[in-house]
Amino acid sequence: MDGGSESIRVLFAVLITIAAVFDDMKRYKISNRIVGVGFVVAVAVNVFELFTTGKVVAYFSGGLVAFVIMLIAYAVMAVGAGDVKLAGVLGMFLGLDMICKVLVLAFLYTGLLGTLVFLMGHSREIKLAIGKVHTIHYSLALLFGEVCGLMTMYAEVWI
Taking the C-alpha atoms of 136, 84, 141 and 107 in order, what is their torsion angle to the nearest 10 degrees? Predict the structure, then answer.
């Protein structure tokens, strides 16, 4: 990440993700209002940075790449629609490099979280045309991936 708006980007990305996690934990859905606010703020930050530094291609491409990757995961019923939209917004905040790290970490955490939740007997089972599946809150894995990705980014800066 670069540019003067980095701390604003990180702050809003984390806040939007935390709001999405709480909503997801409560309703097993992520509200379009949460994602919509994130989208509007991300676009505003990117437009501001476009006029001040001109360096926004990585942020818009981050949003697009994250959205497409998650759309593929949605097509195979691995995530929900809210997770797809949330990842796209996070990509617009964090940029291409960071969102790729976040998504890889989130997919790894999903496996870990899914195993733990299943072993503890707290998974939610839903019936689909293909049979019964167990669900977890992917937004939580996104938050873990985001925090770990940001920690590694800042650790590189501090060292």
Answer: 100
Residue-wise pLDDT tens digits, 32-57: 999 999 999 999 999 999 998 888 99
> 15: which 2 tokens?
């806040």
- Residue 153 dihedral angles phi and psi, to the nearest 5°: -65, -45
Q: What are phi and psi of 105, to 5 degrees?
A: -65, -40
Complete DSSP assignment for 73-119 = HHHTTSS-HHHHHHHHHHHHHH-HHHHHHHHHHHHHHHHHHHHHHHH
Distance of CA 137 to the CA centre of its chain: 12
Q: Quick one: pLDDT at residue 109?
A: 93
Q: Which residues pair with 124 in a beta bridge?
A: 135
The whole-angstrom separation of Cα 62 and Cα 53 is: 18
Q: Tell me how far apart the alpha carbons of residues 91 and 108 are, in angstroms, rounded to a whole number.
A: 18
Taking residue 7's Cβ as centre, other Cβ atoms within 10 Å add up to 9
CA distance 102 to 84: 13
The sign one gets for the Cα dihedral 105, 25, 122, 76 is: negative
